[in-house]
Write a structure and sequence with these properties.
alpha/beta, 8-stranded mixed β-sheet, 7-stranded mixed β-sheet
């Protein structure tokens, strides 16, 4: 079964949600060149490419931590997807790294940051290779109404994957940040089903699902509101286009549930510290954090579920401007007013130096530090596992 029978229409919603008072200034639009910037003191630009900085760090310090990916690491299950659009609860299935497939009780079906390839790289023979298996293929997913892309890094946007989605689900609609639509045309993909959005913009998508899809014995009209929201990151597909396209977090609102997808983000910039020094101690309380998440919580929250990144953070002084560690993640969870959360952005590729099973362990420590319950609030799950809310 495919979603080919369903048709979709995208428009501006009749009623707009609250937005910041300074939105017209568009501080994140680069006033001195192409593209976009992080407009907060919490983001300090590091010179050079991240890979080059990592190599230089290892050369200077002699430190070269290679995480052990010897199985077993993260358990992988064969996912099960609902055969129709009928469900009473929000159902979220982790498909590895930042990719989640979410089934809403309203019938809406959305796929976040799908990468169904062995490597997250422009090359099929070089670059980070999966140390956990893909739990399924694109073709196994019965319905895809919307595909939401946080930004254009290769571990979040995959040309072969987008091709397969377009073939299997020709009416699926892609939501991307400003500047990303041109990529679809350049890669010879049909861009008629692509909507670009700026931070704090919203679009309404209406789906007409057949009776067989709906599982109700009659055709179904489904409406969802897609919100493009800030996060602290950057973008690039090459060494020469950093920041040329917009990165974003996203909200999905249906008649019954509300979800926030963090995509890929940092929270604060941490300098080089003595080894094993805790950067959330009182000594470092002066370090600014990104104010956008509290704005999201205040203006667009609360959310029934947050999908929040917890991995790819070591070395901290290199990665902190654009990647959250679990202590950052629980602050983001609190700021955005998510009632529950699942951790993303770990368990699939070695991108940084922390051990592959470290993020969920540190997440529990961070929840204790924050005074939050370690169980049932902000959790992780197996790849391919579904959680219901």
């Amino acid at each position: 079964m495919t979603s080919a029978l369903a048709s979709a229409a995208v428009s501006s919603p009749n009623t707009l949600s609250a937005s910041p008072s300074d939105i017209a200034g568009k501080a994140h639009h680069n006033k001195h060149g192409p593209g976009f910037v992080n407009p907060w003191p919490s983001y300090l630009e590091r010179s050079g490419l991240t890979l080059m900085r990592m190599m230089l760090w290892r050369l200077i310090t002699g430190k070269n931590k290679s995480p052990d990916t010897t199985p077993p690491t993260v358990p992988v299950r064969r996912p099960s997807f609902l055969p129709t659009r009928k469900t009473e609860r929000l159902r979220a299935t982790w498909l590895g790294h930042a990719c989640y497939y979410v089934e809403f009780p309203s019938g809406f079906r959305v796929l976040f940051d799908p990468v169904f390839t062995p490597r997250c790289s422009p090359l099929s023979f070089m670059g980070p290779k999966r140390y956990t298996e893909m739990p399924c293929q694109v073709e196994d997913i019965p319905f895809i109404d919307a595909v939401v892309i946080s930004h254009n890094h290769y571990d979040h946007l995959s040309h072969p994957t987008i091709q397969r989605i377009a073939q299997k689900h020709p009416n699926a609609h892609f939501f991307v940040g400003l500047g990303n639509k041109a990529w679809f045309s350049h890669m010879k993909l049909d861009d008629k089903n692509v909507t670009e959005m700026d931070w704090w913009e919203e679009k309404e998508i209406k789906i007409s699902a057949s009776a067989s899809e709906a599982g109700e014995g009659k055709a179904q009209e489904i409406t969802a509101t897609i919100g493009c929201l800030p996060c602290q990151h950057t973008s690039a597909r090459t060494a020469f286009d950093k920041g040329h396209t917009l990165w974003a977090s996203w909200s999905i609102t249906t008649s019954d549930k509300k979800l926030w997808f963090g995509g890929d983000t940092g929270y604060r910039t941490v300098p080089i510290l003595p080894e094993n020094e805790f950067d959330y101690s009182e000594k470092y309380s002066h370090l600014p954090h990104c104010p956008a998440f509290a704005q999201i919580g205040e203006l667009r929250g609360p959310f029934d579920l947050g999908l929040i990144p917890i991995g790819a953070y070591d070395p901290r002084f290199i990665m902190s401007p654009m990647h959250a560690n679990p202590y950052d993640s629980v602050n983001i969870f609190s700021d955005t007013k998510c009632r529950r959360a699942l951790g993303i952005h770990w368990g699939t590729w070695v991108l940084t130096e922390e051990e592959v099973l470290e993020p969920p362990k540190v997440l529990k420590q961070a929840l204790r530090w924050k005074g939050l319950d370690e169980e049932g609030l902000f959790e992780t799950c197996d790849i391919g596992e579904s959680r219901e809310y």
